[in-house]
Amino acid sequence: MKNLIKLSKFLKPYWKEAIASVILLVFIVIMDLAIPRLVQQIIDKGITPGNMDVVKRTALIMLGISFVNTLFAIGNNIFSVSASEAFSRDLREAVFQKIQEFSYSNLDQLKTGNLIVRLTSDITILQQTFRMNMRIGVRAPLIILGSFFLMYSTNAALTLKIIPMMLMTAVVVAFFIYKLGPLFLNVQKKLDSLNTVLQENIAGVRVVKAFVRRTHEEERFEVVNDKYSQMNIIIQRFYSAFSPLLTLVINFAMVAIVWSGGLQVIQGTLTVGQIVAFTDYLMTAMAPLLIMVMLANAVASGVASAERVEEIFETQPDVVDKPEAVVLDHSIKGRVEFQHVSFYYDGAVDERVLDDINLVAEAGQTVAILGATGSGKSTLVNLIPRFYDVTGGKILIDGIDVRDIKQESLFASVAITPQDTILFSGTISQNISYGNPTASQAEIIQAAKAAQVHDFIRELPEGYDTPIAQRGVNLSGGQKQRIAIARAILCHPRILILDDSTSAVDVETESKIQAVLDELMKGCTNFVVAQRISTVLNADKIVVLDRGRVVAQGTHTQLIKSSPVYKEIFDSQLGDGNHALHDLLSGKKMMGAAANG
Ligand SMILES: Nc1ncnc2c1ncn2[C@@H]1O[C@H](COP(=O)(O)OP(=O)(O)OP(=O)(O)O)[C@@H](O)[C@H]1O
User: Which residue ranges traverse the bilayer (predicted)?
Assistant: First the structure.
């Protein structure tokens, strides 16, 4: 509940609407409570003595009240909807902004599917909880209290007779609210799992088809879908048992009133109008109890959702600027040094992914990171822009520890094309200029030319204005990678990291890209992660990683003589059986020279 109260701060800017809706609600309650009294008046002062004037006058008042009540109910609706809509919009925005602050490891922990459910379903539930509270939350207790007061003023002895039953009802309601909270939390967790499977499946639908894993995926989905549905069934069963139980209590109370009140009418101590008004008030008091069950439903699910949304707000981004952090000047040289760097993910101290890494990339050098899959290449380069913080040692840029640099200036100096190419919906031009939105068309074209993607774009009917479908599905892997390289180039970084970003590009195009990059990005320090040895041959330094450790570093000529691991990789990829590729690569220098010339 405390989380729900905490989140109510998002309602603060709309307090006027919220208060207006509650005030209207109070008037609605007063009018609702007046009706049984007027019925009593019609019976006792109109029908029984045969006074039609009283009947007509009272009926007109009742009509008037109903009309005003309707207007007030509409007003209440408008105010509560606009306050709760504004509340959920602001909350969604705040959660979205908070997610942008998260580091990679924060995002590893709070999975994407999970975050989407919190941003959508949980916030919608919270919105409904607040709206219901503004519409019926205040109304129900007011009506119950008002009805009892009026019942008591009509006939105190009769009211006291139904108190035990009311207490029983209160216990049932409290038990219900107490039990529902954990169930709703569970439902949202099941929805998380459902969404994660759904998201993985939709994102990987091509892989599913290619590997004929449809049945497996259907089974996987069936399991989470069933669990979600089962949880909902439990709640609904619980809920459906409550309503008849409450009706039973109401009926008992009604019998007690008619029995005991009937006797009083016969004895002449109670009028017919009074007993009708009394039963009316009882119904009026009991109906909100049913509504309160709905409200309990909403509050219980709201409490569960509030806990999940608050968890996002309470998550501390684990990569933050130090107060004394410095701004990295864009005129830096770009010398990068790893000093005894070690790293493990998610507190897994015993599973070091990088161990005692020492390496230097001099300003303007191209350093290639080579190694088997899973050897830690991506992890190593991800530490430079602080996607994760090192767990041991330090990384220096021009002698400054990256943890002492303001992140924004670090990102401005370091551009990375991640292993998985991410493109956004929008045009090709917008995607290339994503990191430098003020770039001119000429600059965009220059970057595209360098990335060897200009000719492809030019041939498209809409050229640079061609829309990219969601996640770039209308482009080939190699085309996407080259657009991502152009995007990185256009940021004019001092340090450029290409993380296996030419893996889907053919060897010839890759060598052209490298040749042009050598020229265009002169002075920029390049890190090139690769599994293909052809990608790294011309690097100033090749670092060979094996299970998180540097096992060799040097130029190709040095390593081929001194490193058995490197020689083994070289032979396996470009050895005797790969003459054609070897020949092509020996022409690489020539192409580089041609580009330079
Ligand atoms: N976000 C993560 N959370 C936990 N472990 C991770 C994470 N990312 C990578 N790992 C683990 O760290 C190790 C190194 O992974 P990394 O991606 O750095 O290797 P890599 O050499 O780049 O591999 P590849 O060539 O296949 O891309 C692997 O064992 C991997 O399972």
Answer: 20-39, 59-79, 136-152, 158-180, 238-261, 281-300
